[in-house]
Amino acid sequence: MVGADAEPVAPVATSGQAASRSVRVDGRNRWTDTGIMVRAGQVINFDARGTVRLGPNDSDVAGVDGLFSGRRDNNAPMGNQPTGGLIARIGNSPSFWVGDGNSLRAPAAGRLYLGVNDNSLADNAGDFQVVVDVEP
Description:
This protein has strands at 19-26, 32-38, 43-53, 61-63, 66-67, 86-90, 96-97, 103-105, 110-116, 125-134. It is mainly beta.
C-alpha cells in the first residue's frame, strides 16, 4: 500500500539499462513508490540522508540507520532492526533493511517501495531523501 498522499509515479523499467531516481520518503507514509521496476538479483544502490522525528518527543529522532538511541520496536515492520530506519520492499515481498549507503541484490522482482521502520506513522515529521540506482 502506498501512502494516501503519494503521487503516482511512472515506472522506470530496468531490463538491460541502469535506472536512477531521487525519492523523498515522507515519515508519515507506510510505503513510498519509487517508480522503479527491478528484476530479482539486480544490484540496487541506495544513497540516503535525512531525519524523521518519531512522535511528539523531540529526542526520538531517527536517521536512515534508525533512532540515534538504537531502540527497537517489535511492532515495527522490521522489529529486529533499529526503529525509524530506512526499509524497502519489492512488490508484496517481505520488508528488507536499507539504512545508509546500502547496496544489495533484489530479493524479488517487481516495483520498489521505500518506507520508515516505525509502527505508528501518523505523528511522525520529516523525511528521508534517497537516490536509488539500479544496475542493469
